[in-house]
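Comment thread on ticket #2218

A.B. wrote:
> Attaching the input chain for the structure job we discussed in standup.
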Amino acid sequence: MRLATWNVNGIRAREDEFLTWIAGAQPDVVCLQEIKAAPDQLSLLLGSIAGYTSFWHGAKGGYSGVSLHVKEASFPGTPLVFTHPDFDFESRVVTVDLGAFEIASMYLPNGGKDYPAKIDFLNRMKAWVTAKVAAGKPLVICGDLNIALADADVHPSQRRANAIGQRLEERELLSSILAAGLVDVGRQLSPDDERMFTWWPYWRQSKERNLGWRLDYFLASPAIAEGAKTQTIERMYGTSDHAPVTLEFDL
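C.D. wrote:
> Ran it. Output below, let me know if you need it in another format.
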């Protein structure tokens, strides 16, 4: 099973890149973030990706938005009902139950314009995850969480103790969400990798030099995390400031 997550930083600007990538990679589930488009603003090609059932969740004039794309051959006969938890705002969360597990595409607020809204989102996300864990359904959260969980998740040249995305309060809240019953699968697979970044500033050839932050995650229930095999970060693919990240695991 292969899951992929990618903050495309505007799907209309990245349409050709995304369609080329998904046609070649063929993940079983794809989670996109920051699509920056309402469903009626998408091209016919994006609206009907061959072999996939797609759900686009964005608003006109929006700067966020998420989507989910489920490979039909991988989940035959599974009714796909896309939902949004009650803490979703600005089109930031969409989920679908795939039978063996539930998956969410999630784009947390950056916090630069409204830091209290980010903290509120994290607290409500924690309550939602706690309830899901209590219900016993395996869960995977894929997406841009806009937090570097530890110093190892930021290149030394960009570490700032009070920078939004690196603040102790944010890190503790994300850690408490993990403690509620999820595993940071990327870090589980590569515990000592201090160059495992998924986002890079657009300046000073940061992507080419791998001077970035790890902001994109797979958070998974232990039952899923136990089967994790590899995580691939396609740093040099596309023109978004984030890379496509793919997780391969055995159910």
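A.B. wrote:
> Thanks. Noting for the ticket: The domain at 2-249 is CATH 3.60.10.10 (Deoxyribonuclease I; Chain A).
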